[in-house]
Design goal:
This protein is α/β, with parallel strands linked by helices. It is built from 7 helices and 10 strands.
Length: 236
C-alpha cells in the first residue's frame, strides 16, 4: 500500500470562469510539478475536455479521473467522478441535454474552449455551461452511480453555490456519504449537527495556474494506483 497526494476538483479552459491558459495539459503538468499523484478534471456541467486531460495525465505520470462539477437545478454544485471516460461522457450527455438553451456571452463569462492533449484549441462550446441544469439534488447520486460514478456536494462551507448556503441544511435523504470542503473552511464548520457521520475531502477548485496548491494537503492510501481504487476509497 502506498500514499498518494490528491486533488479531485480542478477546472480547465472549458469552464467559462477559468483562464484560457488553463488547458488540460497545462493543469496536469503544473499539478505534477506540485507533487500530486491523483487529480480529477471537473469542469462546469461538462466532461468535454476529459479525454485530453487523461492523456496529459498519463504523459506526466499522474492518475487522472474524468469528472464534472454539476450545477443542480437548485444551483448547488456537486463533484461527480467516474471510473471510465465512457461513463463520464454518458453522464455529460445527460447533463448537457438538461441545460437551458442559453448561449454563452463571452464578453461577460469568458471563453469555453475544447483542446487536445497538447493544448491546441479544437473547438468552442456555445451553450453556457454554468447555467443550472435540470437535474435536482436528490437525483444526482443515483444518476452518477448509473454511469459508474461517485458524487458528493462541493465546497459546502462557501456562501454561494453550496448545499448549505442554498438549502440551509444537510438532508440524509439525498444519499451522499461525503462532502467537499474548501481550502479555507473554518475549523469548527464540520461540528454542525447535521454533518455528523459524514466524511470530508478538500478540493482546490483551481480555475487557473496560480490557484494550484504548492503541495498536496491530503493523501489516500491505495493498494494500486487506479481509478477503480480511488472510487473504492471514496465509497468506503
Amino acid at each position: 500500500m502506498a500514499q498518494y497526494g490528491f486533488d479531485l476538483h480542478i477546472h480547465s479552459c472549458l469552464s467559462p470562469c477559468a483562464e484560457n491558459s488553463s488547458q488540460p495539459a497545462v493543469m496536469a503538468g503544473m499539478f505534477a510539478l506540485s507533487g500530486f499523484k491523483i487529480i480529477a478534471l471537473t469542469d462546469h456541467n461538462s466532461c468535454g475536455n476529459c479525454a485530453a486531460f487523461l492523456k496529459a495525465c498519463e504523459y506526466y505520470g499522474l492518475l487522472g479521473l474524468p469528472g464534472m462539477e454539476l450545477n443542480t437545478s437548485e444551483e448547488v454544485h456537486v463533484v461527480c467522478l467516474f471510473e471510465t471516460l465512457e461513463g463520464a461522457m454518458d453522464f455529460s450527455s445527460t447533463v448537457y441535454k438538461s441545460l437551458p438553451p442559453v448561449k454563452n456571452r463571452k464578453s461577460i463569462f469568458g471563453d469555453q474552449l475544447y483542446t487536445d492533449a497538447e493544448g491546441t484549441v479544437i473547438g468552442e462550446e456555445e451553450k453556457l455551461l454554468i447555467s443550472a441544469s435540470g437535474i435536482g439534488i436528490y437525483q444526482v447520486k443515483e444518476l452518477a452511480e448509473s454511469c459508474g460514478g461517485f458524487a458528493y456536494p462541493a465546497h459546502i462551507d462557501r456562501s454561494s453555490n453550496s448545499l448549505i448556503s442554498n438549502l440551509g441544511l444537510w438532508d440524509p435523504d439525498m444519499g451522499f456519504s461525503m462532502a467537499e470542503l474548501s481550502m479555507a473552511c473554518p475549523e469548527d464548520f464540520t461540528l454542525r449537527k447535521d454533518l455528523k457521520g459524514l466524511r470530508f475531502v478538500k478540493g482546490s477548485d483551481a480555475h487557473r495556474i496560480e490557484q494550484i496548491p504548492l503541495s498536496p494537503v491530503q493523501f489516500m492510501d491505495l493498494d494500486e494506483l487506479s481509478a477503480a481504487a480511488v472510487l473504492s476509497w471514496l465509497r468506503k
